[in-house]
Write a structure and sequence with these properties.
With 663 residues, this protein is an alpha+beta fold. The protein has 18 helices and 27 strands. Strands 1, 2, 6, 7, 8, 9, 21 and 22 form an 8-stranded mixed sheet that branches. The longest helix is centred in the N-terminal third of the chain and has 21 residues. The chain binds flavin-adenine dinucleotide (FAD).
């Protein structure tokens, strides 16, 4: 037997449940295990906590969640089932899908009860393909309550400095719009999701050990009984009486695995932290686990700015928000458009496309092209709008000149731009359907632009171009698990004592389907389920569904799965949201006119102020704060620098008053 996996004669630590990786799934699992009476520990490889989730949007996808119900947003289990069956390309498993849909709302209620995390249903954030059967126009996607969580965590950080170890984005995610997400003092999005869960762990005294990578699982009589980790350069042996959960994220930083499993060998760059290098996959496979869906990855366009590094590795900057604006196109190696620039999964499809006639990548290398008008009004990566050139972006006085500098056929690039311009002026894109869906338009910087907020011609010279690199915010394939998060071997039998979630586990509930929040949703649901199973408290939620024949994509399900009862009212946490506001009295706007905060009402309740409104066009907010809290908030808003306060006309006040009086 390998000495590294041999059963040791002494252990450094002895607990019931070992969680490897401080992802949202790992933290959820540790909190739930503790709640069920198990002792738990979290081992984290990096110095920072929260992995890629910490600087993600922090959005989770949970159909039929209780916050939708509170806001009166429609949804049904049948619709969500239909949507996944339609979009999964037949690659999901029915019992895993049923478990996702049934456990999801229950997990969310429970997590809001046992941790300080509070989420909000984003009522205007649609499923990526909301126009397809069963799609939702809003509410299935939830994000951490932006105001309440930020305040809570900023306060908590004073008492628990560990919170400040939550990983920060290495670059501004919304590079063209200075949103508060980039303010290190502000806990929003992924930092708030991880923050709420981590605070739960801290309050429960669950040890969170950073800089402690797990190296091997220790197996005895075909049961995983512990972990050999490394701490301060030495072995650190942890006994796990009830189980080990792999929540180690994806394998995107493992070049060898990328080469083996992805269709774009040698070209993939992780946007998650470099710690996500497939350790959980490898440990799970060593213990006999099988893997699935290894070809799936959340590809994103990135740019490389020489010299920029993350954790001593070359950094590739996410470039998703620049490409979704008017006045730019993406072209392939032939100077021809190849994707819907507004929909990053379609850019991912173009990255992978293969030209069988030439036996080469159909599109790579791909380039992003803009004109001076775009540069005048939108920043590009770290370059402010209208600023001078940088050595990582090419400039040409004419389209042909730019094509030559980028090594593209000049005539093709010219024709591509001219054809795009002709249709863009009419607000159309017959070639790639850009700007046709609600999701395409969701991130438009100029939402009021006519005829289409994400289409506009490239006409004003000079022209600019930069090479796009294949980035990924997570490779999705991973270990095969069952509805309790147990890792299965090649014969489909559970490996005793071993669980997996996060991107270390294959997304068998959703298959090929993807909407933002499915990674986070899956990670939390199956981490939670794993803890319940390890504590011996599991119910077989997916059993009924397992009896149902596999559905054919695009066709109705062969048999209806009985709807599960929604979580009971008693199980609900104290709501922190209010209904949608009827009218605004105060607007706080971004420079581009998009709304940061629509404030409908400020009410005095005792000695506290209650502010009711909508944040960033999506989230209902219902803040309670004392006057000093209000001044702090306003101070922060002013410091953001780009935010303007506009007092709207008394008409709004009058309308609001009428509504409040029921007029
Ligand atoms: C900008 C951006 C926005 C995104 N937005 C969303 C979104 O809104 N919703 C969504 O669902 N997804 C989103 N994603 C995708 C998602 O965040 C990533 O796929 C993500 O990293 C998934 O998290 P995870 O749970 O798999 O693991 P992670 O959160 O990456 O956590 C894995 C952890 O395990 C640790 N680890 C690895 N190996 C070991 C080891 N051997 N021992 C101990 N610890 C180990 C890592 O260091 C890391 O901390 C986004 C990603 C990015 C980059």
């Amino acid at each position: 037997m390998d000495s590294k996996t041999m059963v040791p004669t002494r252990w450094d630590m002895d607990v019931d449940f070992v969680v490897i990786g401080s992802s949202c799934g790992g933290l959820t699992a540790a909190c739930k295990a503790h709640e069920l009476g198990l002792s738990a520990v979290i081992l984290e490889k990096c110095e920072t906590l929260g992995g890629g989730t910490a600087f993600s949007g922090g959005v989770i996808w949970i159909p039929c969640n209780h916050h939708m119900e509170e806001q009166g947003l429609p949804d049904s289990r049948e619709a969500a089932l239909e949507h996944i069956r339609y979009t999964s390309m037949g690659r999901h498993e029915e019992d895993m899908l049923a478990a996702y849909l049934d456990k999801g709302p229950e997990m969310l209620c429970d997590v809001e009860k046992i941790t300080p995390l509070r989420m909000q249903a984003a009522s205007t954030l649609p499923d990526y393909r909301d126009e397809l059967p069963g799609g939702s126009k809003g509410g299935r996607l939830l994000a951490p309550d932006p105001i309440n969580m930020a305040q809570l965590l900023l306060e908590a950080e004073k008492q628990y400095p560990m919170l400040s170890q939550i990983r920060r984005a290495p670059f501004p995610l919304f590079s063209a719009v200075p949103l508060p997400t980039n303010d290190p003092r502000f806990y929003v999005a992924g930092r708030a999701l991880i923050g709420g869960l981590l605070l739960g762990c801290i309050q429960k005294n669950i040890p969170v050990m950073d800089s402690t990578p797990a190296r091997n699982l220790i197996v005895q009589d075909r049961r995983v009984i512990g972990v050999r980790a490394e701490r301060g350069g030495k072995d650190f042996l942890v006994k796990a009486k009830r189980g080990v959960l792999l929540a180690t994220g994806g394998y995107e930083w493992n070049a060898e695995m990328n080469k083996r499993y992805l269709k774009v060998p040698d070209q993939v760059h992780g946007i998650t932290p470099p710690g996500n290098s497939g350790d959980g996959h490898i440990m799970g496979m060593e213990a006999g686990g099988s893997v699935a869906l290894m070809d799936l990855s959340l590809f994103m366009p990135t740019i490389r700015i020489p010299g920029e590094m993350v954790d001593s590795e070359p950094m590739y900057r996410i470039f998703m928000f620049n490409v979704g604006q008017p006045g730019n196109i993406i072209v392939n190696r032939d100077g021809k458009r190849c994707c819907n620039e507004c929909f990053y999964p379609d850019i991912g499809r173009a990255f992978e496309a293969f030209d069988s006639r030439k036996s080469q990548s159909a599109n790579l290398p791909m380039f992003w092209i803009v004109d001076q008008a775009y540069r005048d009004r939108i920043p590009v990566g770290p370059l402010p709008k209208g600023s001078e050139m940088a050595d990582w972006i090419e400039k040409g006085d004419t389209m042909e000149d730019l094509a030559q500098k980028l090594g593209l056929p000049p005539q093709n690039l010219k024709e591509s731009i001219e054809r795009f311009n002709k249709f863009a002026k009419e607000g159309l894109d017959p070639d790639f359907h850009r700007g046709e869906t609600g999701y395409d338009k969701r991130w438009a910087f100029f939402p009021k632009l006519k005829p289409n907020p994400v289409l506009g011609p490239l006409e004003k010279p000079p022209f600019y171009g930069v090479r796009l690199h294949v980035g990924t915010v997570g490779n999705l394939g991973g270990l095969v698990t069952n509805t309790h998060g147990q890792v299965l071997d090649a014969e489909g039998d559970p490996i005793s004592g071993l669980y997996a979630t996060s991107n270390a586990a294959a997304p068998l509930g959703t298959g090929y389907a993807y909407t933002s929040g499915m990674t986070g949703g899956k990670a939390m649901i199956f981490g939670w389920a794993a803890a319940i199973h390890a504590a011996g408290a599991a119910r077989d939620v997916g059993k009924e569904a397992a009896k149902v024949q596999k559905a054919v994509p695009g066709k109705p399900a062969p048999a209806a799965i009985p709807a599960k009862a929604q979580p009971s009212r008693e199980a609900k946490p104290e709501p922190v949201t209010a209904g949608r506001p009827a009218g605004a009295t105060v607007k706080i706007l971004n420079e581009d006119g998009s709304s940061v905060l629509d404030l409908e009402a400020v009410q005095k309740t005792g000695d506290r102020l209650r502010m009711k409104g909508r944040l960033m066009g999506s989230f209902d907010t219902n803040m309670y704060m004392d006057a000093s809290g209000l001044y702090r908030f306003l101070g922060m808003a002013i410091r953001w620098g780009t935010i303007k306060f506009l007092l709207l006309s008394p008409m709004y006040w009058y309308r609001g008053r009428k509504t409040r009086r029921g007029g």
